[in-house]
Design brief:
Layout lengths: L16 H26 L9 H37 L10 H31 L19 H25 L1
Main location: nucleus
Subcellular location: Nucleus
Keywords: Nucleus, Transcription, Transcription regulation
Length: 174
């Protein structure tokens, strides 16, 4: 069973885009028919022989056409919004549906960017340190703090140098 002609929920039942566009064309045709009937009822000639019943019937016809015109305009707006929603966001999915594909697509898009950023960071470090410098990182990826490992290495190398100087002075003096 199909949805009634004026029912905007027909767009929510999983129809494809072509069906939605056909539905929009039908609603526009209905709108045009209501507008035409309204103009015809509003411009009907009233003669001196018209009765109150004829005037009342014409008034009801005008009211019915205005109501149909408003209802069709609302349905067009609802359907147009649904088409735009599907166009911009895509069809709604159930909870959890398509998450794995989305995660894989995101990772596929992010990996080249992360690799490029890592390469740029390495190039920048090389440029900043020059041809003779090295950049030592900690386990977290940051530089070694000033009071950290390098200071201990420098202190031990300075101690070795001072021991060597003391040994050479002792051998010269003896």
């Amino acid at each position: 069973m199909s949805a009634p002609a004026g029912d905007p929920s027909a767009a929510k039942s999983g129809e494809n885009y072509t069906d939605l566009l056909d539905r929009e064309s039908q609603l526009i045709a209905q709108y045009t028919q209501h507008a035409s009937a309204l103009v015809m009822a509003a411009t009907a000639r009233v003669s001196n022989r018209s009765t109150i019943g004829e005037a009342a019937a014409n008034r009801l016809r005008i009211d019915a056409e205005v109501a149909g015109l408003v209802r069709t305009a609302e349905n067009i707006c609802t359907l147009t919004r649904r088409i735009r929603e599907l166009w911009m966001v895509g069809a709604l999915r159930a909870s959890g549906e398509g998450e794995a594909e989305a995660e894989q697509e995101i990772r596929k898009s992010v990996e080249p960017l992360a690799t490029q950023l890592t390469e740029m960071q390495g190039q920048r470090r090389t440029r900043n340190l020059g041809a003779y410098g090295t950049y030592v990182t900690t386990a977290t990826g940051g530089p070694v703090p000033p009071g950290g490992q390098q200071s201990q290495q420098q202190a031990s190398s300075q101690a070795t140098v001072s021991q060597a100087q003391a040994t050479s002075q002792a051998t010269e003096g003896a």
